Amino acid sequence: MRRYSLAQIEALAAIAKLGSFQAAARHMNVTQPTVSLRVRELEEALGTKLFERDGRAAKLNAEGTVALHYTDEVLKLLDELETRLRTGDPLQGTLRVGSSETIAIAVLPKIITLLGERYPRLKVELTVSNSFVLLDGLAHNRLDLAILADPGHLANIHVEPLALAPLAWMGCRSVALPDQFADPTSLSQSTILCMPEPSPLYEMMANWWEREGGPALRVSTCNSLAMLARLVASGVGVGVLPTCILRNEIQRGSVVSYRQETPFRSLQICAAYRNAHTSEGLEVLVSIARRVMLDSRYFERLE
């Protein structure tokens, strides 16, 4: 069990800053023997001396310099904790953001950059995963906010629709389908790639295939949307993907977004966070995310 205390850590920081035990005692409004006792207890707990003393002056030795680095981090975290709990705003301190791969690939770097410009002292912890993991993180308070597709209605979770992400069958131009038209007959001659079940992409593709009267569906799966996009762009197979994640390849003409008789429903991209976390800061983040998506021209406005 750890044998050091916050009072000992504060004494170390005060002496290092002010240069003497006496000055630290005045700053902390305690007696000098009290400060000396706290430092001695800390040194005993850590098993090493922390200061070199020259008369009344005190200077950190090598071990003390290392200890100060860690105690500074502890004090900063405690300051963040106090601010976070006092204000109730997750943008005060560390913001835990979850993102679907679609958003991470397409626009997340721009969102985080603009957020950092607005809140330069903010630290961000990113989790990129599928919707099931992100929703579980929100429900168990491991995430402050998630940007994901089609989250549905959830108890105690506020859902803010942001934009629509169009979907299409896509493939490499070098192995393009005849007339750049996707139907089960032509698709069945290619390797079909998709995210594994359960996933919105697999469900939408399978439902479309059944409605179109396709033959038995044979699918090769990959659990990484980024890797799936690379496989499609490389001509390994065709797949149903959000067009935003291969926008550069579509612009260059190396990837084809196929026409379909029955288009897919676009994914609804939403921001989700616990009702208890509602704050002006989160509303700013939601506004930034919506603006970045719509400015990219690869997402559509909600009707």
Quick recap of the structure?
By secondary structure, the chain is of the alpha/beta class. It is 45% helix and 22% strand.
Distance between the termini: 58 Å
Give the helix proportion (percent range): 40-55%
The fraction of residues in strands falls at 15-25%
How many whole angstroms does the radius of gyration measure?
Answer: 28 Å
Please identify the structural class as seen in this structure: alpha/beta
CATH superfamily of the largest domain: Periplasmic binding protein-like II
Could you name the CATH class of the largest domain? Alpha Beta
Number of beta-strand segments? 14
CATH architecture of the largest domain: 3-Layer(aba) Sandwich
Q: Record the strand order, biggest sheet.
A: 4-3-5-14-6
Please provide the ordered H/E string of secondary-structure elements: HHHEEHEHHEHEEEEHEHEHEHEEEH
- Largest sheet report: 5 strands, mixed
Query: What's the rounded overall pLDDT mean?
Result: 86
Low-confidence stretches: none
Pfam family, one: HTH_1
Domain HTH lysR-type: 4-61
Protein name: HTH-type transcriptional regulator YofA
Keywords: DNA-binding, Transcription, Transcription regulation
